[in-house]
Design goal:
The protein is an alpha/beta fold and 585 residues long. It contains 18 helices and 28 strands. The strands form 6 sheets. The protein has a 9-stranded mixed sheet. Helix 3 packs across helix 4 and helix 3 (47-56) crosses helix 5 (113-124). It is globular. The structure holds adenosine monophosphate (AMP). Adenosine monophosphate (AMP) binds next to strand 14, strand 22 and strand 23.
Length: 585
């Protein structure tokens, strides 16, 4: 079905920040964008200063910065002034623990206020903030802390007992574990600190670290097809892009109430769930609970949310619940709904219009880019199914690899190739931690290659086609098949494992594993359940396979690489394609 362009109004009650796309592209410069921030003396820059202190020291001191909505219905409010004090306290806690500049502070928690305070407090001290998904199992947690040589872990007593206690012994570099919870719960755990007690003992004044724009600030782990997870390194300069994309793509205005539904374990939950709205001095809603359509609608209505940033899986789950429920709620506060993380079906864009009176604005970016790169803007017509057009200040192109170390740009409209960006924007990752080689390989011929396949139409709109690699996107989570395969191989019954993303109408893809067994084992339902449970316990619900099947052999190339493409084609009943490299079986 061909989707009609959604034409945008030409007269606005509140004019979007970006009204003339072409003109803004022509005149935009990142140097100019930087001037919208305050900065620190001598050209220094600190994300937390721009997000918190500059408002707390100015006219927005009493403005609501964060409103936290707890799982059991409680609410906690933090003005910019209060947030400044709390984040100072946490920076003092880290100072007292002797943490040096550049050392890593890991956070493993759901959406609770302490997470936001710790993130910003760590940045104030010049330390590096590394979030983890609370749904990770012990193995992904251990691996990431170990790879980044994490010095401090902030988590809850419950998560510690369930997921961290068993891997502590293999993390000798992890010097301090700060537990959030009731005193009775925490006292019993040897070798840990009581987060709240340390906070209560810490002072409310802190001299913010005068970090350089290029100092490491954020470390976000992401997955590739092979090897260990990659730690994408971001620096304080990234805040220029957080601010600017908030202004241009999310159209932040001073009175806005913004709600980003993303988990802070994911880059969106940091760049837009924490930093971007605060740099604008607006109010951010933090909802602790998981998805529940009616509760979400109530939040939009009661909190008068004006800008809502969510993900395609959530949109599809809302679509499943239907529009009848929606009619009970008032969405008149909403000005913009945006979505990111996976392809947003054209139906979803149009459904937004029917359900909320606003189309859903898809936008595109990834962990490595640190901020939104391609977007559908308020003032520009939407082509449902398209990710939109590159941000002013961003040059995107479609390229084709020619040989090992060259690319050529595909200039004809509608032709598929790899999505690439010209390097140099402020939130571009500065490396993969301890893996210079992998980082270098991302840049060819003056382009950063994103690993996504896309097309550009004659009017400059970009259309997502798929991944160029075997990475899986399930409910917005990027999952490396290698991580799952490696874990399955640890089970005594498994000889070989191959993992693919299987299309799913709600989650986009679900993780499906194929295993072949060692001779002493027989495949049956009991073993299937055992393997599913084993993977879930070790990897956590986010990463573990939803389905496991047994195959006689996992197809491999002659050089021993798992042919996930073939597993997928067989699973979906598609043509098997070129099998010339398949090892004979
Ligand atoms: P992550 O680094 O986990 O945020 O995942 C980034 C990847 O998610 C991208 O490289 C894309 O494959 C996918 N992605 C993000 N946004 C979109 C979008 N709007 N449409 C299609 N895929 C997307």
């Amino acid at each position: 079905m061909a989707w009609k362009t959604i034409e945008k109004p030409r007269a606005w009650t509140l004019a979007p920040n970006l009204l003339d796309y072409e003109k803004t592209r022509e005149t935009f410069s990142w140097e100019e964008a930087r001037r919208a921030l305050d900065g620190l003396p001598d050209g220094r820059l600190n994300i937390a200063y721009e997000a918190v202190d500059r408002h707390a020291l100015g006219s927005r001191r009493d403005h609501l910065a964060l409103r936290w909505l707890g799982r059991s219905g409680e609410t906690r409010d933090f003005t910019y002034g209060e947030l400044a004090k709390q984040t100072n306290r946490f920076a003092n806690v880290l100072k007292k623990l002797g943490l040096a500049r550049g050392e890593r502070v890991f956070l493993l928690a759901g959406r609770i206020p302490e997470l936001y305070i710790s993130a910003l407090g760590a940045l104030k001290g010049g330390h590096v903030f590394c979030p983890l998904f609370s749904a990770f199992g012990p193995e992904p947690i251990r691996q990431r802390i170990s790879l980044a040589d994490g010095r401090v872990l902030v988590t809850t007593a419950a998560l510690f007992k369930r997921k961290v206690a068993e891997v502590c012994a293999s993390l000798p570099g992890l010097k301090h574990i700060l537990l959030i919870g009731e005193p009775g719960e925490i006292n019993a755990i040897a070798g840990t600190h009581d987060f709240r007690l340390l906070m209560a003992q810490a002072g409310e004044d802190f001299a913010i670290a005068s970090t350089q724009p290029e100092d490491l600030a954020l470390l976000h782990f992401t997955s590739g097809t092979t090897g260990t997870p990659k730690g994408a390194m971001h620096v304080h300069e990234a805040v220029v892009a957080h601010y600017m994309t908030g202004r241009i793509a999310l159209d932040f205005h001073p009175g806005d109430i913004f709600w980003c539904t993303a988990d802070p374990g994911w880059v969106t939950g940091t760049s837009y769930g924490i930093i971007a709205p605060l740099t604008h001095g607006i109010t951010s809603i933090v909802n602790e609970a998981d998805f529940d359509a009616e509760q979400w609608y109530r939040i939009v209505q009661e909190q008068r949310v004006s800008v809502w940033y969510t993900a395609p899986t959530a949109v599809r789950m809302m679509m499943k619940v239907g529009t009848d429920v929606i009619r009970k709620y008032d969405f008149s506060s909403l000005r913009l709904i945006a979505s990111v993380g996976e392809p947003l079906n054209p139906e979803g864009v149009v459904w937004g219009q029917k359900a909320f009176g606003l189309p859903i604005h898809d936008n595109w970016w990834q962990t490595e880019t640190g901020g939104i790169m391609i977007a559908n803007y308020l003032a520009l017509d939407i082509r449902p199914g398209s990710m939109g057009r590159p941000l002013p200040g961003i040059e995107a192109g479609i390229v084709r690899r020619v040989g090992d170390n060259a690319v050529e740009e595909v200039t004809q409209p509608g032709v598929e190739g790899e999505l690439a960006l010209r390097p140099g924007w402020p939130s571009m990752f500065r490396g993969y931690l301890n893996d210079e080689e992998r980082y270098r390989k991302c840049f060819i011929g003056g382009w950063y290659l994103t690993g996504d396949l896309a097309r550009r139409d004659a009017d400059g709109y970009f259309w997502f086609v798929g991944r160029a690699d075997d990475v899986i996107k399930s409910s917005g989570h990027l999952i490396g098949p290698f991580e799952v395969e490696s874990l399955l191989l640890e089970h005594p019954a498994v000889a070989e494992a191959g993992v693919i993303g299987k299309p799913d109408p709600v989650a986009g893809e679900v993780v499906k594993a194929f295993v072949s067994l060692k001779p002493a084992y027989t495949w049956n339902d009991k073993l299937r359940r055992e393997l599913l449970g084993f993977a879930r316990q070790r990897l956590g619900a986010v990463v573990a396979p939803r389905e496991i099947d047994c195959v006689a052999n996992v197809p491999k190339t002659r050089s021993g690489k798992i042919m996930r493409r073939l597993l997928k084609a067989r699973e979906l009943g598609l043509a098997e394609g070129d099998l010339s490299t398949l090892e004979s079986q």
